[in-house]
Structure formats: C-alpha cells, structure tokens
Write a structure and sequence with these properties.
Blueprint: H1 2-19, E1 22-28, H2 32-43, E2 49-54, E3 59-64, E4 72-80, E5 86-92, H3 101-114, H4 123-134, H5 138-155
Helix pairs in contact: 2-3, 3-4, 4-5
C-alpha cells in the first residue's frame, strides 16, 4: 500500500506542469504576417533559443532560461482575429515571481512593432521597453514614449522618426 501511495505521489508531481500551462493572448490590428515577422525578430534575440518554427502554421517554440533559472519552453501561435487583425497566443508552463514568460514574450513583440524603424539605442526606446517590462499598462508606456520622442525631436529635429499620426496604435490590443 505504501509503494502504491509513493508511486501515485511521484506520478502526480510529474504531471503537474502539464496542468499548469497558462495561455496569454494579445490582439493586434495588423495582419498575422506582420506580427509573425516581429515575433521571429524577437525570437532571434539573445533572450531566446528557437526550438521549433513553422511559418506555414505560424507556430513558434522557444527555449528561455538556462542552468541557474532552469530552461523553460514557450509556444507562440498566431491566428486571424475576429475583426481582421491577428491574435497571438503564448503558452508557458512557468509564470512565477521572477519570470512570467508568456507576457514577457508578448510585450517584447509589442515593443518590436511599436519601435520599428526607430533607433533601438535611443533613450526614448530604452525607456519604453523598460516601462513595458515593469508595468502592464501599455497606454501609459506609449504616452511616455510619445513625450520622450517629442523632447528628442525638440532638441534635434533630425532625430524625429518618420511615423504616421497613429503609429502608437499599431500594436495596441483590440478590445475583447
């Protein structure tokens, strides 16, 4: 009887991560092809390692972490949204205090799309990415980015990015 209880406990420990998979979704106004290009660009950064990729199905599996924090797998899939946009779904078994893999990946994709064409080393872009990493309020971070860009362009008009009037709405989530 003890061995059966021990076996049951061991099996339940190994099956818990499967039940703990968490889905995070973000709706984009752009087509899935545009979001896919941004997602692949983020995946090729030094933060992630590509485990599997399918352009046809628009599915991406990434490994994050390492020896000290433990390696974790994140899956990203893109599907057409109800209003013609794209819905990105990130699935990760880990959502802890130090790391929250799914939302981190989605916020990096948002940042990549919003700051496309801007100098990635500019103070405004660095502050924007830092704001997204700390807060979940994208509108607050975008307002701060607009203010920082206005300051930079006031100092040096040649640094003003060529953005459309509604550039900050490109990666803004669609109301669900």
């Amino acid at each position: 009887m003890k061995s059966f209880a021990y076996l049951l406990m061991v099996l339940s420990l190994f099956s818990l991560p499967g039940f703990a998979m968490k889905n995070r979704q973000h709706a984009f106004r752009e087509s899935c092809d545009v979001v896919w290009d941004a997602a692949v660009g983020v995946a090729k950064s030094q933060d992630y390692r590509i485990v599997g990729i399918s352009k046809e199905d628009q599915v991406l599996s990434l490994a994050v972490g390492g020896v000290w924090a433990g390696e974790r797998i994140i899956s990203l899939s893109l599907s057409s949204g109800p209003e013609g946009g794209c819905v990105a779904t990130a699935q990760s078994a880990f959502s802890g205090l130090a790391h929250s893999d799914g939302p981190d990946l989605l916020s990096r994709i948002v940042a990549s799309m919003v700051t496309k064409g801007m100098d990635p080393h500019s103070k405004a872009v660095r502050r924007y990415k830092g704001c997204l990493a700390q807060f979940t309020d994208e509108e607050k971070c975008e307002a701060r980015l607009r203010k920082d860009l206005a300051k930079e362009s006031a100092k040096d008009p040649s640094k003003q990015p060529s953005l459309s009037e509604d550039w900050w709405q490109n990666a803004k989530p669609v109301a669900k």
